[in-house]
Structures are given as structure tokens and as C-alpha cells.
Specification:
204 residues, alpha+beta, Pnp Oxidase, Chain A, 2 domains, Split_barrel_FMN-bd, Pyridoxamine 5'-phosphate oxidase family protein, Pyridox_Oxase_N, Pyridox_Oxase_FMN-dep
Length: 204
């Protein structure tokens, strides 16, 4: 199998991008980007460690949980999780981040690239808290690139069409998956119950 190894090979295969695809990239948040962020309950954060090992992690909360501090700065609160800290460890070593924001039912997405720094500033964590609990930490992102991404991937995948979704009952539960992958002695039902109890206690 031959692989594409140079920028020239890549461009020869795909050709020149449309002028709009180039010009749509902005260096700051405009009113449309701010409006999208105010309605988005979900973001995927891409990061890399200093050796280039990549990670993508989801972050979600009520719409608008990611706040705009100014035209070139975002604040993403962290909530209780599994404490692996994959993304946060990457950001400490390599601040480059790529963000993909989604709004359920909307086929277009908002992409933001920039650099991130993690803070446990008490005032900011309290400001971005939920249900009386401050954020565990906050990722403050300096925006470098902002642009809307077209709908093709969502149209092809029919992501937001419930009639195309698989029956959840046909898929294994997380308890079943963990039992099999980790050879755990607990039953899947017991694991699923424990997971559900943990979710109820530690969402915020």
C-alpha cells in the first residue's frame, strides 16, 4: 500500500479548496459564533502530548456551559470524571487544542482552534459552577481560528435522524463491555447499577 507523504501529493489528489472555504476562517468570535456557543451543550476537545500522541475527549453540560470571556477567549468548565486527565495532561505539556462544537439537530458544526491553559482560579470556577458546586478546573482557550463546518458528514451519517438509530436493546451495556474487557467477577447488571448510581451522584 502506498501512502501520501508530502503536502504536494495531498494537494494533487484533492485540488484547490473553494475560495469560501478559505475566507470563512476568522481569528475571533463573531456574533454567529457566540450565538452557536450559547446554544451548544457539547464539545469535542482534541489535544496532543509533547510526543504527538493524540486524544479526543467529549465535554458536555447545559447549553451555553462554555462561556465567552471576550472575542478571542473561551472558558470550558470541567466536571467530575474518572480522573484519567488525558486531555488536561496533554494541555499542560502541549497547549494546542482543536474544538468541535455541536447543537443537537443541527448539521453544521463550529470549529475552533487555539491554545489552552488550565486554571483552578476560585472566582472563575465558581462562576462556571453548576448546582452550587464550582467547576473542578477551567480550560481557558485563546482562540486562533474560528469557522463553521459544512453539513456533509451529518447528512451522510443521518446522525440526528432517530429513525436511523440502532435499537439500544441490541447493543451491549457498558456493564457487559467492562465485564468482558476486564474479566470482572461482577455481573453486568451489578456493574450497570453501580455506574448508574455513580452518574446520579457525580454529574456535577
Amino acid at each position: 500500500m502506498d501512502f501520501i507523504e508530502t503536502q504536494e501529493q495531498l494537494r494533487a489528489l484533492y485540488g484547490t479548496p473553494h475560495d469560501v472555504a478559505i475566507r470563512k476562517q476568522m481569528a475571533r468570535l463573531d456574533p454567529h459564533a457566540k450565538g452557536f456557543l450559547a446554544r451548544s451543550p457539547f464539545v469535542m476537545i482534541g489535544s496532543q502530548d509533547r510526543e504527538g500522541h493524540a486524544d479526543v475527549t467529549p465535554k458536555g453540560d447545559r447549553p451555553g456551559f462554555v462561556q465567552v470571556l471576550d472575542d478571542t477567549t473561551l472558558a470550558i468548565p470541567d466536571r467530575p470524571g474518572n480522573n484519567r486527565l488525558d486531555t488536561w495532561k496533554n494541555v499542560v505539556d502541549n497547549p494546542a487544542v482543536g474544538l468541535l462544537f455541536m447543537i443537537p439537530g443541527m448539521n453544521e458544526t463550529l470549529r475552533i482552534n487555539g491554545t489552552g491553559r488550565l486554571t483552578a482560579d476560585a472566582d472563575l470556577c465558581a462562576r462556571l459552577g453548576m448546582n452550587g458546586r464550582p467547576a473542578r478546573a477551567v480550560l481557558v482557550v485563546a482562540v486562533a481560528e474560528v469557522y463553521m463546518h459544512c453539513a456533509k458528514a451529518y447528512i451522510r451519517s443521518e446522525l440526528w435522524k432517530p429513525e436511523t438509530w440502532p435499537d439500544r436493546a441490541d447493543l451491549p451495556t457498558l456493564g457487559e463491555i467492562l465485564r468482558d474487557q476486564l474479566a470482572m467477577a461482577e455481573t453486568p447488571e451489578a456493574l450497570d447499577t453501580r455506574l448508574a448510581e455513580g452518574y446520579a451522584r457525580t454529574l456535577w
